[in-house]
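re the bet — no i am not wrong, look at it urself. input seq straight from the record:
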Amino acid sequence: MTSKYIAESQQRVLKTLDVLFGHEVNGLASGQIAKLLGTNASNVTRDLANLKEAGFAEEVAGTGNWRISPRVGQRALAILHTLDRESAKLEETRNRFTRI
């Protein structure tokens, strides 16, 4: 479903982030990213700069490659922590209602 609120540039940034997954150690060159996304180097440079500014991507030292930043993993772990906490609360509530 297409919406008037969908912005091509924002979608491309999100796709750029998605492409970086699985390359957390060595990262990808911006040219590789452009090829995978079917876009040009200027777009990738702009998108990576925005992801870096937001804390979601970083350059791999000495290579010029890009990867997701540790912040992405940290946020994923926060989700898992929240799910564990809520699961424990649910189990506690279930036990309260099922005690005889």
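see?? Helices lie at 8-20, 30-37, 41-54, 70-98. told u. also The radius of gyration is 19 Å. so pay up
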